[in-house]
Amino acid sequence: MQVALFQLDNYGPWTTTPEPRPEPTLQALQSRLYADFVEALGDRGGYGFYGRFDNLVGITNGLDRTAHRAIQQQLGDAYPVTVSVGIGTGETPGAALGAASEQLQAAGGAQTADRTEALVGDPTTDPGVLQVAHFDIVDVTQNYTNQEHAYETMLQIQEAISSLSMYLYETVDAITFFVGGDNAIAIAPDLDPDVYATALEHLRSETGVEFRVGIGRDSHVGRAGMAAKDALERCRQTGTRIEGLQTVAQGD
Amino acid sequence: MQVALFQLDNYGPWTTTPEPRPEPTLQALQSRLYADFVEALGDRGGYGFYGRFDNLVGITNGLDRTAHRAIQQQLGDAYPVTVSVGIGTGETPGAALGAASEQLQAAGGAQTADRTEALVGDPTTDPGVLQVAHFDIVDVTQNYTNQEHAYETMLQIQEAISSLSMYLYETVDAITFFVGGDNAIAIAPDLDPDVYATALEHLRSETGVEFRVGIGRDSHVGRAGMAAKDALERCRQTGTRIEGLQTVAQGD
Amino acid sequence: MQVALFQLDNYGPWTTTPEPRPEPTLQALQSRLYADFVEALGDRGGYGFYGRFDNLVGITNGLDRTAHRAIQQQLGDAYPVTVSVGIGTGETPGAALGAASEQLQAAGGAQTADRTEALVGDPTTDPGVLQVAHFDIVDVTQNYTNQEHAYETMLQIQEAISSLSMYLYETVDAITFFVGGDNAIAIAPDLDPDVYATALEHLRSETGVEFRVGIGRDSHVGRAGMAAKDALERCRQTGTRIEGLQTVAQGD
Amino acid sequence: MQVALFQLDNYGPWTTTPEPRPEPTLQALQSRLYADFVEALGDRGGYGFYGRFDNLVGITNGLDRTAHRAIQQQLGDAYPVTVSVGIGTGETPGAALGAASEQLQAAGGAQTADRTEALVGDPTTDPGVLQVAHFDIVDVTQNYTNQEHAYETMLQIQEAISSLSMYLYETVDAITFFVGGDNAIAIAPDLDPDVYATALEHLRSETGVEFRVGIGRDSHVGRAGMAAKDALERCRQTGTRIEGLQTVAQGD
Description:
- Four copies of one chain form a homotetramer.
- With 252 residues, the first copy, chain A, is of the alpha+beta class.
- Chain A has nine helices and ten strands.
- Chain A has helices at residues 11-15, 23-42, 65-78, 93-106, 140-145, 150-172, 193-207, 221-238, 245-251, and strands at 2-8, 47-49, 55-59, 83-89, 119-120, 130-137, 175-178, 184-188, 211-218, 242-243.
- The longest helix of chain A is centred in the middle third of the chain and has 23 residues, at 150-172.
- Mean pLDDT of chain A is 93; it is low at 247-252.
- Chains in contact: A-B, A-C, A-D, B-C, B-D, C-D.
- The interface between A and D is small, with 7 and 7 residues.
């Protein structure tokens, strides 16, 4: 498993020097940088998540050092801020991201003025198999969006996805991200299908929210992600709660 | 108080028709649309938040119907999806956003194929005074970013801001949004300073996370927001936990 | 008349320091900066043209110094390069842009390392009336795009619009810009309709290309531009070659 | 040689339906679509040029059908307009782009309402060697930008690059594009160095403008383009007028 942490260099100070910059400007900057980041990864078969916007997470299985450098330069050449990159590998997504974090911390930390465009850590040529688990909430439009206060819906979804994220991190060392609407994507190690069944049941009993999930499995995150989306679509059309893993496992 | 809900028309079905679109494509679309949205609002003195990305929240005090229409058209002309807008007014931000939600629900709901670029609800010419409370976490870089696993830090910040959001919504009907890093912005009614002191204390005892806050107060959200950022900067430089309201109140 | 020249600071050296940056990176930067520029102007009732991409032209009638500063900061905060702005006023668009050029040259020139985000020249509160003349080529799709080699068509259109631009600059001090497809927009002083008839005739005899034109007239360039587009649409639907000025003049 | 023509589907009608869209909106759309286009190509080793903005030119040597489809979908999923693609191959860039034009014309033409996201023509697995010739104007900042009226400079550069483009197209079937500032990039077949010397001399005598040129040579346009930029940088630093080809030819 290979995960890269893309951390804006000295961003906090930049946002307030020489004086605080307008919030719309910062929001536009962060979200455009994220868009370029995710597209640069996507063009190379990877996946990106905004994380905290100043600490972005890239799933970079199969990408070498040159590819990471190219993405780093593309961002540095496009924005008034630069990005340092820590590449981490490990048995699980959690372990890989932990390794990436340590690489960057050792390289100087987020607000060290003299760390600029560091690129640390070594990619692996054998990242192994990962799973992408794409979750959404059953009947969210009818039960929430078209019935409830938009802010209450937002808080409820946030809360449910936060519970999902913590559960998956604690139990299987997966890393999970909100990707808009009522969708969350978990990057997981190679799990048995019943792990997902248990997770959905846990979430329902703890938060009252009913998720479903499509799962893809591949050595490349882009391909696994598309398989996950196709599987989730089968859930939507057939009313099932979990799709993807059995089929893939059988054909494997 | 005036809040507008910008809701993508029939977006869920679009993302999977004729077949699921690649996730990097959707992420890039959503975040660029948000960037344009926040900039179009910012150019007119407003503020925007990504909400759930398919349900974006605009603070539009002082913007008339023509301005809302122009922003709606700008987005519709730039993306393959269109946006419906509900304008809500009320005594508090929560009430205004609730009214905006109801307007849109009455206009057909989020996945009604025949609702396209609706613009419902009436702006007010007297939106009154609002407060912008800009929060961040004390010593987040030293205590978290440079010490901890990036994903654990992300989860902790997410959890803390979620608690903050719920507390402020339940107690004073404010609406609060994560804006990157360790920052959250609350749009609040005209509150006494001690409300914020109580909130910070509540958060510390409940989550162990220590926030500080800069507050701005104005009839225009853009001006209030800049004042809040300046006030937060004073917190950072002087070590205080709350800045802005007293000063403004005295000078008012 | 008021025209502003937005000139990237020390851009040439930046593109090759420390070593030449990839061309796709520079193209993406320049065209996104232009998109933000034109939108920031458009949100305030102005018009923008890419000029040479490192020297962009803004038609800023009615915009004050604060608005120019806000646009300058928005760009400086979004990109790795900064922008200096010269504001010029004059009887004609050509004269106003000439004055803007001189302002910037006096402020240090384009590759002076120590000129950063200069803002020079004074807006006028009485910019007067301007005309926007929106040209396109009659039957371009049937006669060129669907028949000819794409590159030859591109060269022919380039040549024709270049001739148009020079003719209008020399005869009436208008400034004309290619805006994509077969479209060119001239910003002109308040002209008699027969000037346009003579121009079309001149172009036809000199280049063999038949243009038509819709004209708008207003103190605000955004409104004049929309009127010009509506007028050009009337040309397209009724087969006429010049629309807009007579009507406006009669109703004025 | 392989060149692809990316043509917006039915774009002219779209810009005026149901009524003319604001010019800033169209400019922002066109330039952002171009930015995404050039970046999607760049991420895959290709080069893109804006052409007429509604007819964009991609140098796609080495890219297969799947890559063209991915770029087409990325654009179609990001904008309210779709793109058809004609892939052409030939001995020269001019011949390849001509073949691409014919492919698209045969597929229905630019304003056929029922042509949507066509992808026609066959990539070649053996595109051969191409040259990228990167031109700029000697002393443009001192002689023009810092001395002259910005619009006159723009017209002079436009005129000079137009002459350069026509000369190279007529003599060696190269295709040349303005890329901002005083820069033009020609995509050329594998030429002898003296062709460039003759071209520079011709341009000087015809337009009075002195160009210099850095040349790169490779089977991949991205690599050839970087070599050309490095070579042009040597011209700038050593005062020579032509760099790149001799060195490469010697080492070949």
